[in-house]
Amino acid sequence: MNAKTMILGGALASLLIAPGLASAAFVLDTGAPSSDTGAPVSVLSTSQFLADEFSVAAGLNVTSLSAYLTEGVGQPGDTFTFDIYSSAGFTSRPSSRPAPVFTATGTFSANGWNSASVDWVPASTGTYWLALQVGSTTQTKGLDAPGLGISTTSGSAPALGFAYAGTTGQYALSSAAPVAMEITAAPVPLPATAWLFASGLFAVGGFARRRRPS
Prior knowledge:
alpha+beta, disordered N terminus, Jelly Rolls, 4-stranded antiparallel beta sheet, single chain
């Protein structure tokens, strides 16, 4: 095998492998609560909302929002709202807090991760808050949100901060460990230039074979 063939083969192999490497990525991943952490349990209800802060790049396609919840006094079929807020004004009074930039409905199915498939592309790079909110007892009577123990840095993409809103609906920052949440983004596709490069390599290979003396 000559050097030209080796270079061509290696380049083509890397291009063929690259799409497999472009897998879905976590924007927020706190990890799941451990049953032996002894962590306190927060309640998601009409009198308490919960939120985690995260960062995301503009143009990234977010495809899934997830929260780790257990039944508590709620029940399967209860719904809650995933609201994404920009960081600006998030902790303001509810009357002056900007509206969420994205909203989706989550449905509690069983203890563990409860997810909603979404299609959200942030318009600008920055920090945002993913909030779990409940509008009325017809949504849920209360779902438990187990804490993550003393660690606030677990998971592959830890939360940047944690906040809760009490009966007033105004969020306050907390030093407690964040609620377990995940945000998944779609794979980033290969740029068109990569496929043009592959086509060029094929052409070079064909030209080299034609010039090879018989």
